[in-house]
Amino acid sequence: MTRKKSESKGVNAVIDGNPLTYWITNAQSDKPGDKWLLFDFGKDVTIDCWSSTHRGYMDVNEEGVHNVRYNTRNFSLQISEDKENWIDIDTITDNEDYQVDRNLDQPVKSRYFRIYITKPVQPGAETAKVENDRATARISEVDFSYQGKSVIHEEEQKAAGFRYNNSDGSGFHGSAQKAFDDNEVTMWRSDTQAIRVDGKTIPHDKWVSISREDAFTFDKIEIKHNGVNFPDETMYNTYDYELQISDDGSTWNSIQEVNGNTESVNAFTFETPVTAKHLRMFITTPVHPDAASKHFENDMTNARISDINLYYKGKNVVVPERESGEYYHEQDILNAEVRSRQEFNGEWVTFKSWVADDRNYLITNVTLDETAAEQLKLKLLLTSPKGYSPKTGTSENLIYLTRESGNTYKSKTATVVRVLKGESEVVENSQILSLHPGRQPRF
Fold first, then answer.
1. Residues 84-92: contacts with CB within 8 Å, 24+ apart?
2. Cα–Cα distance measured from residue 160 to residue 177, given in angstroms and rounded to the nearest whole number
């Protein structure tokens, strides 16, 4: 599948499974006209549901209220046979929500789909200083589904050899694959157990499954629930469920039963490795009974699974082992520090960064693990996003970058990197910092 757009930044962000990244167009003040996002699947595909996540998802104040100002106001879903003549199949007007989930009246088949945006932001948010300088389309995620399965991610699932399925799904989080992607940011979420006002039948028991034509073997299962991402909402951790296996997808045998769970992470080890073609997490009570209803009966009973990880001899069975270069990152708001850890050639390097109290400096300590077999070289570079014309240079023991940007608004930026402690040399507009085991250079 390919994606095209009217003009934008980050078009692939709409299918990366991360609602914190987003596609953004130029403003209508710079490039007047409607905005659009085109999906070419390379063949005809059938959909009966589609969803979109908008800018307000990440625009949240201290009280947890989402700002609606940059949520897409008016837009439609279109199909075409030739990418020239387009037919509207679903139209949304006066939208204020950051999450828009749409069920089509009947399934639709096409190769080309387009989201066509006529009003990218809310009334009053179009202009800051110049007319329409804020009229910029912003979309975080898009997904198309048929019978609860993501059409966008179908080819990725086939490439890995695994298939994913579920009882039902809810909008952007409806893809079953998100329960098995070893990514805590994403999750699979079912519909609720409530009776729908539109009369659509939904299953009372919820399940999500993984299967493969060739049997797979595991000796450990790790399940991460809603509380992994939302520590204050552990009442939505899966309460009662079974882990089941099957060789034909019809007859299921239980290998683990859980009742009354309140933990955010469950892990089960099997002394005798388990081999099967199908694995299913079958959920009878999705949330703590006290949290099942908020406004009406069972309206909060969505099953929510962040991750189901299968391991055999310590390795993830579904997600391939990552190559060297794993990266861990945390922000310590209380102490105003950013700490991270990254693997280089099998050795761990840690970073700690903070802002100086009395000047415009970002200070970073970097440490190579004291058990490292040999020293490493760390190359420090200054880069600039595409579309700018930066100038780089060196002066004694520092490197610098300057740039200018903007048409309507002018911006001038300068950044300098200087090594304050440790061995380093300047080589072609970069700083080469020597890392010795256990020592702590600073820049």
1. 86/114, 86/116, 88/116, 90/50
2. 11
pLDDT tens, position by position, 201-255: 677 899 999 999 889 999 999 999 999 888 889 999 999 999 999 999 999 999 9
Nearest to 204 by CA among 318, 135, 302, 103: 302
Contacts of residue 322, defined as CB under 8 A and 6 or more positions apart, other chains included, come to: none
With beta carbons less than 8 A apart as the criterion, state whether 240 and 284 touch. yes
Q: Is the Cβ–Cβ distance between 53 and 95 less than 8 Å?
A: no
The widest CA-to-CA distance across the chain, in whole angstroms, is 73
